[in-house]
Amino acid sequence: MVSFPEMVRTTSGLGEVRYALGDRLVDRYLEFVAGRARPNTLRAVAFDLKAFFTVVSADPAEVTAADVFEFLADQRGDRSVVRLADRESGMSARTIARRLSSVSACMRTWSRGVTRRCRPTRCRAAC
């Protein structure tokens, strides 16, 4: 049994890369993303969800808005951008936005069901 969230990367005989974090619901969502997104996008979403559930440590089916705000506050740190020369702490706004996008897309998919035909990378306001 894998402790949650622990990212496990597997490769099929055909060379398809899959990621799992150890929770049935999250792993099912990552399978959904794998069928609709490019490999680098899949890897980024898997890492973003791992970061989210590491900070929040809540059951995926019971995530609340307060959990998302807790994650946002943790990611912002002292509100400075990471720069190697200055060695400041915090994370860039672009990285935080990408992580929040991954988490919110995951939550929307759970609330709607995974059967929609919408592609996350090309979705517009109609979704």
Tell me the layout of helices and strands:
Elements: E1 8-11, E2 17-20, H1 24-34, H2 39-56, H3 65-76, H4 93-112
Antiparallel strand pairs: 1-2
Could you walk me through the main structural features you see in this protein, from its secondary elements to its overall organization?
The structure is a single chain. By secondary structure, this protein is mostly helical. The protein has one domain (8-112): DNA polymerase, domain 1, CATH 1.10.150. 48% of the residues lie in helices and 6% in strands. The protein has helices at residues 24-34, 39-56, 65-76, 93-112; strands spanning 8-11, 17-20. The protein has a two-stranded antiparallel sheet with strand order 1-2. Helix 1 runs antiparallel to helix 2 (39-56), helix 2 crosses helix 4 and helix 3 (65-76) runs antiparallel to helix 4 (93-112). The longest helix has 20 residues, at 93-112. The N and C termini lie far apart (36 Å). Mean pLDDT is 79; it is low at 82-86 and 122-127.
Task: Write a compact overview of the structure shown.
The protein has helices spanning 24-34, 39-56, 65-76, 93-112; strands spanning 8-11, 17-20.
Strand order within the widest beta sheet:
1-2
What count of structural domains?
1
Whole-number radius of gyration?
15 Å
Kindly identify the CATH topology: DNA polymerase, domain 1
What's the total helix number? 4
Give me the strand/helix succession. Answer: EEHHHH
Strand fraction:
5-15%
